[in-house]
Amino acid sequence: MLEKNGAAVAFVEKDKISYPKALDVASTAGWLETQICLLLDKHTPDAVGYKLPLTHSSTKPIQNSIFPLGILNLCCNKKNISISHFTSQGINATKFGLTKKDDVYAYIDVHIGQHPPYWDKAAKDAALVAWFLL
User: Fold this and answer.
1) Contacts of 7 (CB under 8 A, 6+ apart)
2) What is the pTM of this model?
3) What's the confidence (pLDDT) of residue 55?
4) Among residues 23, 113, 36, which one has the least CA distance to residue 69?
5) Cα-to-chain-centroid distance, residue 10
6) Among the listed residues 88, 133, 131, the one whose alpha carbon sits nearest the alpha carbon of residue 111
7) CA–CA dist 51, 94 (Å, integer)
């Protein structure tokens, strides 16, 4: 979660949902809806964004990323929260007035800091998408 105060963008908090191991797909969907709604209620965002995964070679990644994104869209719709998606091509330095060759991940580290654990490319993509929506 990021906040904007004037021209300054500040990192506020991040949450990670860890999947339960013993649930079937249908039960996981219900569990995810509850978890996502709890996060939306906790943070009360004006808008939500996510990176859309474009390629998957097996069903497990689909089950663990595409299904949850559908549930995220459903939860946001139920709560009247604006939701947007971005692709890898849309996450680039030009959105910040930089050149395509500039490292957008280094840029975000400088401007909002590093926030371990889980401060990997996926976490940085999520932060960049949040920044685009501010």
Assistant:
1) none
2) 0.82
3) 64
4) 36
5) 16
6) 131
7) 17
Task: Judge contact between 56 and 65, C-beta under 8 A.
Answer: yes
Q: What is the pLDDT of residue 33?
A: 95
Render pLDDT for 17-70 as a digit per residue (tens, 0 to 9): 888 888 888 898 999 999 999 999 999 999 999 998 876 566 666 667 788 899
Highest mean pLDDT among 6-10, 12-16, 80-84, 110-114: 80-84
Please list, residue by residue across 12-35, b when 16 or more beta carbons sit within 10 angstroms of its beta carbon and e when fewer do: eeeeeeeeeeeeeeeebbeebbeb
Contact 9, 131 (CB under 8 A): yes
Residues shown for the chain:
134
